[in-house]
């Protein structure tokens, strides 16, 4: 299995609804999103997918400088964001997993069974 990874950063605000702690307060993160795409065979000229094509597709779905609670109809936890980004990309790319970092210490990822 070949795997490639692209990583992009975006800034956004959110509040976690019904969390019961300080994350219910409006706050922001400089998120990092990592997308891993895999394939057992390479496409000509010897790539899983073109890095630039994947980076552009990821950039298009990132809610940069947005209030996530106004953009999505789900509670914008890192877990839910990872799944949402996966679902947005999986029709175009053989996505293995999506990882969303809220900061250097914490990430959540989605990878289907
Ligand atoms: Zn947060």
TrEMBL record:
<keyword id="KW-0456">Lyase</keyword>
<dbReference type="Pfam" id="PF01242">
    <property type="entry name" value="PTPS"/>
</dbReference>
<dbReference type="InterPro" id="IPR007115">
    <property type="entry name" value="6-PTP_synth/QueD"/>
</dbReference>
<feature type="binding site">
    <location>
        <position position="14"/>
    </location>
    <ligand>
        <name>Zn(2+)</name>
    </ligand>
</feature>
<dbReference type="GO" id="GO:0046872">
    <property type="term" value="F:metal ion binding"/>
</dbReference>
<feature type="active site" description="Charge relay system">
    <location>
        <position position="102"/>
    </location>
</feature>
<feature type="active site" description="Charge relay system">
    <location>
        <position position="65"/>
    </location>
</feature>
<keyword id="KW-0671">Queuosine biosynthesis</keyword>
<protein>
    <recommendedName>
        <fullName>6-carboxy-5,6,7,8-tetrahydropterin synthase</fullName>
        <ecNumber>4.-.-.-</ecNumber>
    </recommendedName>
</protein>
<feature type="binding site">
    <location>
        <position position="29"/>
    </location>
    <ligand>
        <name>Zn(2+)</name>
    </ligand>
</feature>
<comment type="pathway">
    <text>Purine metabolism; 7-cyano-7-deazaguanine biosynthesis.</text>
</comment>
<dbReference type="InterPro" id="IPR038418">
    <property type="entry name" value="6-PTP_synth/QueD_sf"/>
</dbReference>
<comment type="similarity">
    <text>Belongs to the PTPS family. QueD subfamily.</text>
</comment>
<dbReference type="GO" id="GO:0008616">
    <property type="term" value="P:tRNA queuosine(34) biosynthetic process"/>
</dbReference>
<keyword id="KW-0479">Metal-binding</keyword>
<dbReference type="GO" id="GO:0070497">
    <property type="term" value="F:6-carboxytetrahydropterin synthase activity"/>
</dbReference>
<feature type="active site" description="Proton acceptor">
    <location>
        <position position="23"/>
    </location>
</feature>
<feature type="binding site">
    <location>
        <position position="27"/>
    </location>
    <ligand>
        <name>Zn(2+)</name>
    </ligand>
</feature>
<keyword id="KW-0862">Zinc</keyword>
């Amino acid at each position: 299995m070949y795997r490639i990874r692209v990583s992009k950063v975006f800034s956004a605000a959110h509040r976690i609804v019904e969390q019961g702690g300080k994350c219910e307060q409006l706050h922001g993160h400089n998120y990092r999103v990592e997308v891993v795409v895999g394939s057992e065979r390479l496409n000509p000229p010897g790539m899983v997918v073109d890095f630039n094509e994947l980076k552009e597709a990821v950039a298009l779905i990132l809610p940069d400088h947005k209030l996530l609670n106004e953009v999505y109809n789900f509670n914008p936890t890192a877990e839910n964001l990872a799944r949402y980004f996966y679902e947005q990309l999986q029709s175009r790319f053989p996505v293995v997993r999506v990882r969303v970092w809220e900061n250097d210490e914490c990430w959540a990822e989605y990878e289907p069974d």
